Amino acid sequence: MRIGLVSPYSFDVxxxxxxxxxxxAEYLVRxxxxxxxxxxxxxxxxxxxxxxxxxxxxxxxxNGSTARLLFGPVxxxxxxxWLEEGDFDVVHIHEPLVPSLSVLALxxxxxxxxxxxxxxxxxxxxxxxxYPLLRPSIEKIHGRIAVSEDARRTVTTHIGxxxxxxxxxxxxxxxxxxxxxxxxxxxxxxxxxxxxGRIDEPRKGLPVLSAAMPRILAAVPGARLLVVxxxxxxxxxxxxxxxxxxxxxxxxxLSDEDKASVLASAGxxxxxHTGGESFGIVLVEAMAAGAPVLASDLAAFQRVLDGGPSGxxxxxxxxxxxxxxxxxxxxxxxxxxxxxxxxxxxRERARAFxxxxxxxxxxxVYETVSDAxxxxxxxxxxxxxxxxxxxxxx
Length: 394
Fold this sequence. Notes:
This protein is α/β, with parallel strands linked by helices. The protein has 15 helices and 15 strands. A seven-stranded parallel β-sheet has the order 3-2-1-6-7-8-9, sandwiched between helices. A six-stranded parallel β-sheet has the order 12-11-10-13-14-15, sandwiched between helices. Strand 8 (about 140-145), helix 5 (about 150-160) and strand 9 (about 165) form a beta-alpha-beta unit. The radius of gyration is 21 Å and the shape is elongated. Residues about 380-394 have low confidence and may be disordered.
């Protein structure tokens, strides 16, 4: 099958959507499909062979963060050329309402279209304003996917209709086999806490965790915090109280392998996000690596943690509350048996999000829309039955 994937966000500074697209593309290539990814990126950016850079993106505030988007006549010409050369059986557009390559591809394509909605924002004025202009193009979409129930509600609120819920995928085996690193591991009386996220983005929750740390250190003086992610580390360090600064190490942006090792080395992974999350892929990564998880009680996070057959796979605290975060952290650090149980349940729960499961469900949607062509029924309500070994024209 010839598959075109479109990313609205730049591959220069990867985020959750870009990682999802990258990993899906790699799975599809391994499965024998012809795959091409179109994404904003400077020509000199190091990219996989199947990623086509469409040009430099512009940073724009979007959905509570800064997104790097690409629009305009030059970008539109590149999209049209990519579509013509690709001759795709299906074009899979991510975030089709984002004013970037996604909208341009939706306007230009005549191939069967699958769209994945990642955003959770039921009060988006931008989406409400854009919908009337994009409505004719949205009718081209024959397969709608939402990565979570929260993203699905965004679709039903702003577009109407429905979407199939297929979660983000994770290469759980890569995280499960990650090795613990002595320099990042804790020990009796000196547990290692791990935060992973963009440092300069307040909704990722580092300010909440930083405010909780004095209380945590008062109860567990040997605790150490590892902060993983891109951003202005020196400015973030300077904002910390002296005792917290001494207990915190900023590791910056790490490779996938090192990120997995940090998670595998964690005594407790903390996700203090304050909002704007439609899924919680970082929770799945931490659970797959064997880290016990403590997360803010966002609905999206609770759905990731609570769906397992053995019960809740992680602990939660009141979103935005440093006091509750500190209390729950101290409580868990004082209960090694509970931490071991959470780690075991987390590994079990993470398997539901493995790419072997997720990608086959996405392929089932591809099969439905490509077989029917321009008269494909709208795939929204029934979650497709996975069909393994799907092959098409190469």
